[in-house]
Structures are given as C-alpha cells and as structure tokens.
Amino acid sequence: MPLVYCGACSHAPGITARAERADTQTRQALHGALGRMGDDIRATRPDALIVVAAEHFANFFMNNMPAFAIGMADSYEGPIEDEAFLRIRRTTVPGNKALSRKLIERVMQTVDVAYAEEWKFDHGISVPLHFLTPDYDLPIIPANINCQGPPLTPLKRAWAFGEALRAAADALPERIALVATGGISHWPATPDSGKINEKWDREFLARWAANDREALLSYSDAEIYRDGGQGGFEIRTFIAAAAAAKGAKGTIEFCEPVPIFAVSCTVARMKIAA
Amino acid sequence: MSLYQVQKLIYQLNRDPRQRERYAAERDAVLAEYELSDEERRAIVGVGEAGPDIGLLYVLGVNGQLLMHFAALHKIEWTDYLERMRQGLKQHGQVREGVYAATGYEGIDAHDARLKSEREAR
After folding, report:
1. Per-residue model confidence as pLDDT tens digits over A128-183
2. Among partner residues B69, B85, B99, which is closest to A225 by beta-carbon distance?
3. pTM of the full predicted structure?
4. Is the ipTM of this complex over 0.85?
5. What are the boundaries of each domain within chain A?
6. Given an 8 Å threshold on Cβ–Cβ distance, is B65 in contact with A194?
7. What is the CATH number of domain B3-121?
8. Residues A44 and A6 sit within 8 Å (Cβ to Cβ)
9. A230: Cβ–Cβ under 8 A, 6 or more apart, which residues?
10. Annotation: CATH topology of A5-56+69-182+207-252
11. Residue A274 clears pLDDT 70, i.e. is over it
C-alpha cells in the first residue's frame, strides 16, 4: 500500500515535564493539535507507525554511531527518562519485528541502515506517542537519524532515507503511517534553554510545507548551529518526512513558540494521497 | 584524556545501573578505566559531598543530552542545573569543545513577556 499518513511534530520533554508552567490556552491548543494528529493517523487505519526520531543517547553512542537505524523488535520499552521528571509512565510499546525486517530489507537497497533488535525509547518518541497513541495500541517502528554526535548525517542523506522509507512502505501490503519528530530551532539542556528563533522556524516550515527539496537541503551545519542551535540539527527528521511525502505539499496545523517547552511547538502534515 | 572518555563514563553511568553500583562502591577503580585528565576527573568527582562539578563539565564540552541526565541522576533540579552551567561559564570561560556552547538568551520570563506583547499587538 502507498504510505497512508505522513506528518511531523515536536518531541520536547518540557511539553510533558513542565506542562503546567506554560500558558494554559497555548498548552490546551497544542494538546488539541496533537490529539487531532492522533485521530488523523487512526483515520488512515494504519497497521504500523514509523516514528523517525532523533534520539539522545538512549541506544546509540559515539563508540558506534549509526547514521541511520531502524528498530526490529516485537516490543520496545520507554521512556528511559525518570518517570516523575517526564511524567510519562514507563511502558512496553508494541512493535512488529516481521514488518520491520521487510522494511529494513527494502530500505537497505538504497540506504545503509543499521538495524536494532533492542531499542529503548526516550522522550523523542515517548512524548509524541503519549499524545498520538496514548493507549499504545498501534505497532511502532522506530527509526533514527544521527542529529546528536558530529559528524552528523548529511541533510541530503536524510532526504534519501525518507525516500527509501517511502519506497519500502509503498512496496508492502501493510498500511504504514510515518511521523517525524524533532525540534526546529532550540538550545536544549544549555543555559539558553528556552531560546527560540521563531523567524528561522517559520522559514524552515514554509520550505517544508512547499516541499522544496533544494531549499530544505541548502542549510549548512554551521548555519543551523548559528541560527537554530544544536537542537536545530533535528531538522533532519522533518527533511526525511518531506522526502517520504514524495512531492506532496504540507500544512502547518500548529506552530507556536513556547519558551518553557524550549521549542516552537509544531504539528504538521503532508497532504499525501492515501 | 579526551571529551570522548568523559562522555563515555557519563553515558555509562546514566544508562547502566550496574555501572552506577560499581561507581558507588569502588569509584577510583571505575575512574581508572577511563583516560581522564586531572581536570576531567575533578569535574566528574566534584569537591567533597557536593557531587559532580556540572559547570566545569559543561565548559569541558559534555553534550547537554548527557549532562542533563547526569545532573538528574544526582538529584540536581532543572533550574539548579541551568544555574550551575551559568556559574561554570563565569568561573571557567566559554565552552571549549562540542556543540553545546552558550550563545546568550534573554531568559524565559523576558521572552514570554515579549511574545505576549507581540501577540497583543497583532
């Protein structure tokens, strides 16, 4: 089946960990947008959801850092963070090992992806799932792009990964949805946590919604670091989703800077024909 | 003697409960397994019972996604964690390596106030 859903959203831990410290109206609007995203995903009756994330040393470290990885297990545990801090209960999330394997075999035809039969979710996956699939009843296939330990995965390779995921999903009989998660500009876990370059975020999202490959891939890492901070490196996941949309355009369903959550909280969807 | 060794130790303590137990029971033996400079060792161990020197670790270039969890492991609350990094900058100067340098920020309260006035102006 062709990919049934393609979107992107924020995963900032502050969204749950520091929930009450944001303006009530903004928080409720964000929760509403994430809830609708979950409804939209369910409406496409997916058999599995690929979450393209940018993990933060839950599984991968600089001793052996894959540019790309895909999980291949029947279940995953998460979040790794302290439950009282993140305010998300640690749980077992269903996967689908056989489906993962079929996807990986196809992705490998064009992108050298690492596979992982063990995978712990961190906030990069657990925060989105908390809102999108709160009952944890949809099999998840985690995927990762190295946005954390330089040298980072080049943007054009993140695009190739998105294309490969799309080709793999399209070639299988299952109905597969895809959500990319990450921040746009942010300076997480630094003294500047809360800083947001809203103008840069909106410009990036305009390029994303237009699905303008050339404009999306034109950023250098030095520019991203200067304008979007180290958190900005996570635009790789959004870029993979744009590629997976195969030319479709997107809509930005929610985008609001929330300093206490440290990002422009975003919910966006590509209008793919499903 | 490298940032990599410091980060590796922090990563392993963050992620592996058995390594944490070993570290609690025989700290010097665990530390000896990593190639650390005196300064790096001092940053990890800290002074007296105060716990790790978060400010110095930050300035040495430890990735925030590791340092944040290392601070939480030592029961250092979020606001305190941010303040310790600021103190580290004052004491030791700008971040020396890595991609987690401080770039300057007006602060969340001022930022919120500015966003609010911008919203009202629209």
Report:
1. 999 999 999 999 999 999 999 999 999 999 999 999 999 999 999 999 999 999 99
2. B99
3. 0.97
4. yes
5. 5-56+69-182+207-252
6. no
7. 1.10.700
8. no
9. A187, A188, A190, B64, B99, B100
10. Protocatechuate 4,5-dioxygenase; Chain B (3.40.830)
11. no
